[in-house]
Write a structure and sequence with these properties.
The complex is a heterodimer. By secondary structure, chain A is an alpha/beta fold. In chain A, 28% of the residues lie in helices and 17% in strands. The chains are: A alpha/beta, B alpha+beta.
Amino acid sequence: MQADTIITPSTLCVKDLPWQIAWDKDKCTLCGRCTAVCPMLALELAVYRKRVVQPPMGLEKPPENTFESFYGVRQKTTPDNACVGCGMCNLVCPNDAIMPMHTDEADKLRFHNNQGGVPRRRGGRRNDPAGILDRIKFTRISMLTDPALDAGRHKFELTTLLGRVLPPEENLKLQREQGWIPPVREIYPLIIGGMSFGALSPTMWEGLQMGVTYLNEQVGLPVVISTGEGGCPPRLLRSRFLKYVILQIASGYFGWDEIIHALPEMKVDPCAVEIKYGQGAKPGDGGLLMWHKVNKLIAAIRGVPQGVSLPSPPTHQTKYSIEEAVAKMTQSMYMAWGFRVPVYPKISATSTSLAVLNNLARNPIAAGLAIDGEDGGTGAAYNVSMDHMGHPIASNIRDCYLNLVKIGKQNELPLFAGGGIGKRGNLAANAAALIMLGASGVQTGKYVMQAAAGCLGSETDRCNICNIGRCPKGITSQDPRLYRRLDPEKVAQRLVDMFLSFDTELKKIVAPLGRSTSLPIGMSDALGIDDYRVAERLSINYVV
Amino acid sequence: MCRLFAMTSDEPFSPLVAAKALDVMREGHDGSGVGLLLSDLSGPFEDLKDAPVLSGIFTSKGLKKLDVYMMELGFTTKYKVTIKAPKPSPPGIPQRDVYLIRAYEYPDEWHSYTSERRANELLKVRLDLRAMGQAEQDMIVFSFWPDTIMIKEIGDPLTVVQHLGLDRKELMARVIMAQGRQNTNYAINLYACHPFFIQGIATMTNGENTAFVPIREYLSSRGFPGYTGYQSDSEVFAHILHYSAYKLGLPLEAYKHIITPLSDDEMEDHPNKVFLKQLRQTCRRLIIDGPNCVIGCLPNKALFMVQDRKKLRPGIVGGRPGCWVFSSETCGLDAVLPDRDKSMDFQPMHLDTAIVSSDRQEVHICRQTQSLPQALCA
């Protein structure tokens, strides 16, 4: 039997793909919405030929058959058009006639998605749905000896500090002498992690900014958001809302020309400046905005030509040593805002985090350290970096915290943890676990995209096409036809929903622990896990 | 839940007064232990105000070790009270060899020391003795400080005081703190018994400090040898007060601002807003999370009571000029001072610090919303 196509090494059949599209001819109305919406153009109109055998009754006439044709959809099998399982076809189908199904065995596409010698790049997180954070339990429950608190009615102080906190002796001395005390912000412990203007669509950015403003000004939660590496829209830079924004400077310095020029016109100071040295999703690799997303607006804000990929270098090119990076960059950033804005670095979690931490601890003004674990998300990275590079956040943050305890600086240099928080939907539990391991707060971006904008990505490799600007929800696209699907008002509303529910859940965790007067940073006696080695590694309780 | 009783009086009184008050409040403790701190001593110790007094429990062997150690340092005994409890002990009270209260003469070279150095050396001696007794449990040392006696023992408070015969003229004092223990979280260990003492500062607590572990870690990393031990989550209250007073030079009025700082809303109209906000940030790891009622005594013999933010634990202050009582419950206060003006009794709430200074004339109420002493914020 002859194949109906030319077979090449990369010729795949539907069965070889990670996602197979199940299509029901009986239900299909042939409206064409699925083919129109598919971001991968994985569906095409198909004309199927069908033989119909018509055996007559009796023996007089021989059996006859006819050939009919019918219309439907067909799944393309070229690697470029392989279904990513986003499920948009199902979303738009009026009759539920179509749905992507995950293959029952390892796909063959993975051996062929490097056409032209370019390895697979994608967005999302490490493709591993499991994680240690979900296994940590809160085992110190207040019972009788100290009454549990009412999460609904009791008053809780849950803010955290971002900034270099001086030791009490020094702080009081400087107050007496009216000396300079490093700026410290009191913020909500859940920070919206850096997702750049460019990586995100304009509607998504606008929605997040509106939501953050509402949370600060109407709800009273001092939530802040990091810009990621891509600058900041000029009007936001000159607005009073800048105070809720952490400006990120990364190795590509994208958008900083605009920021520096806006300095004299800024009405308020930004919340902080985050110097990005690394990112958990792709440690040791710079930011990447692929050419698909560099349109006129993005090019203007970033100060680059249109339609070219923007790979940031893996490191800040002007820094040749940790001392230089910490001292020069931190100080120059402080200087830019007259020493009124906290400046801190963000690194990807690594077995060398302690070396960075110790250098920061010796620097008198570094305002904190953000550490992004291996489960951090990204808009674009090489798959190999995402799946195989990096350090888990739990032990990294714990080691850093205990190191600070050892040198007595646990209140001076706040640690912020990121990477995989809420990966399985347990945002508050994961955040609380990291806080009790020693983080002053946590950063999350992916969960925000999922909760506030309906991102479809998953750690079983669903969708994850943020990099090519075809986000079917319009979250990470610069194509107006796509990002108009996203209503910024609705994003803002969902962001507020997300933070309010997080706040309630966080209280539901800390209240039974008897904590309400301050955020329980480092309250490791409350934590337990059913794995002896993990318990030992994290210095928490082993419980079975 | 434990029960607390503290009294300050112009007229010296016996530890039995405190034990009886604890006995009245016995529904709030299980008789698992009692701790006593006597200060502003009378009787023979009246004339030895500057001599450091060592308080502890010793075996015969431990006593010999003590003598050798102290003689090597150059300390000589000026006066001692040795309590040898009759045998057998009542049920629930362990049999001990000697309860020792011994006033020493400083070694010659110590006279040239600054008061700070002397305080640190006294602390070192206490910690050394504690460490020396750890292995064989032959020395348990509670305090080594002038004008201070501490006695702690397992058992029902009144029974212990009567059994040890503490109602004696040598042990009359003008300030007594006492705790009747309800053993909850930790094995019965005398070092976990309140009051806790460090360089003239003592506190005792009713309740559980849920922020204990981060606070312990913070204090332990201050590099001060006295911030150690922590057999009880309540020991940190004494050490925070010590840190605030000795290391930061802050008055008692600031203590509450450290352990339970005002929220942003409450701070908004405060005249010392800037200072308090800085203090809240810089001392953040010392914020307690109760429920706790803390009664404490300062080196100047002032007594005070504070509550945590939740104000879930009982605590009342009452009395008359010349004699004031801090008690967990009103019945404890009634047992000692039934004829006071009860309308003037005060139960500190979540913002209050109730202070009776050594002149014993009045209860001074310091609310966190009031302005702080001028010198502090200048």
